[in-house]
C-alpha cells in the first residue's frame, strides 16, 4: 500500500468492514501470546504434577532395574504407565491453553477462504517485502527485545542464586538435584511470566495494526453506505416521487371537499363533511404559500366554497394531518365554516 493510499484511508473501519474481514478469517491474533499460553500451561502443569509423578516414575524405574533380566516387558509396563500418567496431562495442558487463548482473542473462526490455496501466499516478492520491510523490522526488534529481557532475567536469577549454586558442590546428589530442579522451575516461571507480558503487548499491537490495515477512505465509506442503504441520490429521487404522488392525490381530493378555510396569504385547509356523516370533518388537503394558492385555485375551479378565517386556518394547518378528523376544540369554528359553505351552495343553486 503506497503512502498516498495510507493518507487517504484516514477513517476507522466500520463494524461492517470488521465483520467482513472476520468472515474472511482476517482477525488480529498474537502468535506470541499463543506460545506464551502454551509455555505457561506447560510450566504450571509441570509444577503441579512433578511432586507426585516424579517419585512414582523413579520408583517404577528402580523396580525395573531391580527386576530379573528374563522379564523385560513385565518390568517396563509400570515405567510406561508412570511415564504416561505424567506426560499425558503435561502435553495436554499446552494444547488446551492455546485453544483457550485463541478463543479469548476471538481468533477461532471458521473461514474456508483462509485454507483455499493461493499463489499470492507463496509469492517470494511479497514474502521479501514482509520480511525486510517495516513489519519484518518490527518483528526482528520485538524478538531481540524479548531475548534481551529473557537473558537479563536469567542473569539476575543466576546472580541471586550464585551462592547456593557454589555450595551445591558439597551437597549430596539428591540435594543437588532438588536445588537444580527448584532453580529450573523458578527460571521457567519467570520466563513464562515474561512471555505472557510480551504476548499481551503483542496482541495490542496486532489489533492496532489490523485496524490500520482496514482503515477506509471517504470513497470506501460512501460505497459501503450505498451498498447498505442504497444510493442517496436514488433514495432522494424515490422520496421525491412519493411526495409528488401524495401531493397530487391530495390535490385531487380538494375537488370533493366541503369547504376550504384559508388565511388569504399563507394557509389553506380543505375539509370534507356531509350531512349524515357520524364522524367529525376530515382534512383532505392542506398547504402553505404556493401550495395554499394551488388549493384555492382548484377549489375555485371545482366550485368548492372558500372561507377566509385566518386564525382557524393557522390552527388547523398546525394541528390536523391530512386524512385525520379535526379535533373537538375546533368543532365550533369548523361548524361555522360548513354552514357558510352550505349557504354559498344554496345561493348558487338559487341563482341557477
Walk me through this protein's architecture.
This protein has 352 residues and is mainly α. The protein has a 4-stranded mixed sheet with strand order 3-2-1-4, with helices on both faces. Helices cover 71% and strands 6% of the residues. The protein contains 14 helices and 4 strands. The protein has helices spanning 3-8, 15-23, 31-66, 72-104, 112-115, 124-132, 134-160, 162-167, 173-213, 218-229, 232-254, 290-302, 310-319, 331-351, and strands spanning 259-263, 267-272, 282-288, 306-308. It has 2 domains: 27-213, no CATH class; 235-351, secretion proteins EscU (name from scop), CATH 3.40.1690.
Name some characteristics of this structure:
352 residues; mainly alpha; name from scop; 2 domains; four-stranded mixed β-sheet; 14 helices; 4 strands; 6% strand; rod-shaped
List the helices and strands and how they pair.
Elements: H1 3-8, H2 15-23, H3 31-66, H4 72-104, H5 112-115, H6 124-132, H7 134-160, H8 162-167, H9 173-213, H10 218-229, H11 232-254, E1 259-263, E2 267-272, E3 282-288, H12 290-302, E4 306-308, H13 310-319, H14 331-351
Parallel strand pairs: 1-4
Antiparallel strand pairs: 1-2, 2-3
Helix pairs in contact: 3-4, 3-9, 6-7, 7-9
Brief digest:
The protein contains 14 helices and four strands. The chain is mainly α.
Measured by DSSP, the beta-strand proportion falls in 5-15%
Q: How many β-strand stretches?
A: 4
Sheet with the most strands: spatial strand order: 3-2-1-4
Kindly report the average pLDDT value. Answer: 81
Structural class: mainly alpha
Structural Rg: 43 Å
The tally of structural domains comes to: 2
The residue ranges in which pLDDT falls below 50 over 5 or more consecutive positions are none
Approximate helicity band: over 70%
Ends distance: 85 Å
Order of helices and strands: HHHHHHHHHHHEEEHEHH
Amino acid at each position: 500500500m503506497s503512502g498516498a493510499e495510507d493518507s487517504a484511508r484516514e477513517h476507522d473501519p466500520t463494524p461492517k468492514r470488521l465483520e467482513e474481514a472476520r468472515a474472511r478469517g482476517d482477525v488480529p491474533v498474537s502468535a506470541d501470546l499463543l506460545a506464551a499460553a502454551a509455555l505457561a500451561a506447560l510450566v504450571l502443569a509441570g509444577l503441579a504434577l512433578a511432586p507426585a509423578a516424579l517419585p512414582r516414575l523413579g520408583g517404577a524405574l528402580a523396580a525395573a532395574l531391580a527386576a530379573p533380566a528374563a522379564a523385560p516387558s513385565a518390568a517396563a509396563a509400570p515405567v510406561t504407565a508412570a511415564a504416561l500418567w505424567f506426560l499425558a496431562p503435561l502435553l495436554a495442558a499446552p494444547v488446551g491453553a492455546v485453544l483457550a487463548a485463541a478463543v479469548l482473542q476471538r481468533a477461532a473462526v471458521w473461514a474456508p477462504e483462509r485454507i483455499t490455496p493461493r499463489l499470492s501466499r507463496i509469492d517470494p516478492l511479497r514474502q521479501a517485502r514482509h520480511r525486510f520491510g517495516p513489519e519484518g523490522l518490527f518483528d526482528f526488534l520485538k524478538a531481540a527485545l524479548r531475548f534481551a529481557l529473557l537473558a537479563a532475567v536469567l542473569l539476575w536469577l543466576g546472580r541471586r542464586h550464585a551462592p547456593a549454586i557454589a555450595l551445591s558442590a558439597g551437597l549430596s546428589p539428591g540435594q543437588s538435584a532438588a536445588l537444580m530442579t527448584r532453580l529450573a522451575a523458578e527460571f521457567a516461571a519467570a520466563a513464562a511470566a515474561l512471555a505472557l507480558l510480551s504476548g499481551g503487548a503483542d496482541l495490542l499491537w496486532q489489533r492496532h495494526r489490523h485496524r490500520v490495515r482496514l482503515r477506509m477512505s471517504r470513497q470506501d465509506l460512501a460505497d459501503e453506505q450505498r451498498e447498505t442503504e442504497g444510493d442517496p441520490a436514488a433514495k432522494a429521487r424515490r422520496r421525491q416521487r412519493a411526495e409528488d404522488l401524495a401531493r397530487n392525490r391530495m390535490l385531487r381530493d380538494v375537488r370533493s371537499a366541503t369547504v376550504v378555510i384559508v388565511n388569504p396569504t399563507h394557509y389553506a385547509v380543505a375539509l370534507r363533511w356531509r350531512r349524515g356523516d357520524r364522524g367529525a370533518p376530515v382534512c383532505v388537503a392542506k398547504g402553505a404559500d404556493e401550495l395554499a394558492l394551488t388549493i384555492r385555485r382548484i377549489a375555485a375551479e371545482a366550485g368548492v366554497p372558500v372561507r377566509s378565517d385566518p386564525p382557524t386556518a393557522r390552527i388547523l394547518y398546525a394541528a390536523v394531518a391530512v386524512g385525520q378528523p379535526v379535533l373537538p376544540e375546533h368543532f365550533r369554528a369548523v361548524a361555522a365554516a360548513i354552514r357558510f359553505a352550505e349557504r354559498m351552495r344554496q345561493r348558487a343553486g338559487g341563482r341557477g
